[in-house]
Every structure is written in structure tokens, then in C-alpha cells.
Amino acid sequence: MPLIPEEPQIHESAQGPRATPASGRTAPTPRPVPGPRPAAPPRPGRPGPLRPTPPVQRASRDVAVAESGPSVPAAPATVTASATPQIQLIPASAEGALDAAEEAVDLLLDSGRAPGEVLVITTGEQHPWAAHELSFGEASYWAQHDAGDDVFYTDASVAGRAAARPVVVVAVNGGSDATAASALPLALTRAGALLIVCGDPQQINSVLGAGV
To answer: Are strands 30-32 and 14-17 parallel, antiparallel or unpaired?
Structure first.
């Protein structure tokens, strides 16, 4: 099911594109109009995460892929195992995919998603948060995954160990075609309501078209 590249829709109210897109990005990301959100305290016993992850909450909902324009939020609904996630494509180069994924996560949190509802998978270089937390050991790293109270970052090589979450964001930031070909279908099985893929549209459509 090929996808038409689109400007990202995190499906809250949106306003115009940012004045300065992230480095390496091929398409601007619209910003929602969120309410204020409190800052989360650093995790005890170690430095806080590299990006604030405030404890905000919103009800799960389906998000439709649209060609353009803001979407109207759907009525709150509980994500079930049989729910089919919506897929959203954010065009980006391999060098800009991680920045695009980070901005998508920020938009999700700004629009009300709880940090524990979001899983981020990278196909190339690890996200800095994952590299930092793994420096404390794998047991501590996966304990944070099991706690489920923060955005969790992992790479495609071990993403199969991650549990499903309402939203999965994939940064196709390098790695082989085989890695992307295995990571994207896996991410689809882990996404309860929404799968956001940041990367080259032709590569992503080819993988998803064959694997979904």
C-alpha cells in the first residue's frame, strides 16, 4: 500500500511550518497548537534524558493519513490488539531522519501523548538517549522499557524485544536495506494506533508495499 509523501500530521490542531527546518530535512513539519505542559523531573540516580519528557496524558485515537491540512481529532478510544494502526510518512534523508523523528516525538508530546505511549526505533546509528542509557548496562536500560513511563528509544537490531505502544516512530537513518525491510513491518506490529516513518519515501513505500 504505497504512501504519498506528506507533511507530517500528528493529528492535533496544526499551524504553519517552522521557519527553519531541521538539518537534512526534505519537508517542513507543521507545529500543533498545544496547551502548556509541565516539565518532567530528571530520572533519579542518573542524569536526566537528553530531551524533556513531561508526564502529560491524552486519550488514544486513530490518526488518518491525509494529503494536506490539519485533521480533526477523533473521539477518544481504547487501543485494542485488533486495531489497525494508521501510517504516516515524513520524508527525510538518512542524515535528517533522526531529527525528523525527534521533532515528531516533540509534536506528539506537545499535543498530549504521554511519554510512555511512544516507542522510537532507529535503523542506523543509535539515538543518543539509548547510547547514554545503555552505558549503565542493559538491565537498567530494559528496566526503563518495562516501567513504560518514558519515551523509549531502541534500534532495529533489538526492537523485537520491545513491547507494543500506541505510537511507534521509525527513523530510517541508515543501515542496510535489509535492516529497514525487517524494521518497518516489525514496527507496524508494535504500533497500536499510529506508525510514523521518517526517511526516504521511495525506500519506505517499497518496503511497506511489499511487507504490509
So the answer is: antiparallel
According to DSSP, residue 116 is labeled G
Residues whose CB falls within 8 Å of the CB of residue 103, separated by 6 or more in sequence, listed in order: 22, 29
According to DSSP, residue 195 is labeled: E
Bridge partners of 87? 195
Residue 24, Ramachandran bin (φ over 0: left; ψ between -120 and 50: alpha; else beta): left
Assess contact for 94 and 12: CB atoms under 8 A. no
CA distance 134 to 56: 25
Residues composing the chain: 212
Residue type for 125, please? E
Q: What is the pLDDT of residues 103-140, one digit of tens each?
A: 999 999 999 999 999 999 999 999 999 999 999 999 99
Q: Is the pTM of this model over 0.85?
A: no
CA distance 122 to 37: 27
Beta-strand pair 14-17/118-122: unpaired
In degrees and rounded to multiples of 5, residue 30 shows phi and psi of -65, 150
Alpha-carbon distance of 17 to 130, in angstroms, equals 29
∠ CA 157-162-165, nearest 5°, is 130
